[in-house]
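Handover notes (outgoing to incoming on-call)

Open items:
1. DEP domain-containing protein: sequence verified, structure written out, both below. Nothing else pending on this one.
2. Nothing else urgent.
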Amino acid sequence: MAQTNSGGQGTNGVADESPNMIVYRKMEEVIAHMQDEKNGIPIRTVKSFLTKIPSVFSGSEIVQWMIKNLDIEDQ
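DEP domain-containing protein structure tokens:
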């Protein structure tokens, strides 16, 4: 059975400051900013031939958002 623990420590007693956890936290922070309703990536509904597709964004919109918000200079 899996053990749960508190205090931000893994099952081996080492704090969750491993390189993987640091990267995961940074990724979560970027995703939260992407989902921001005011400054995030614009989400829209696209009308297809017979249906409407909700919650759509394009790859170019993500790239443009990243250049604008993450101080990236190159595409």
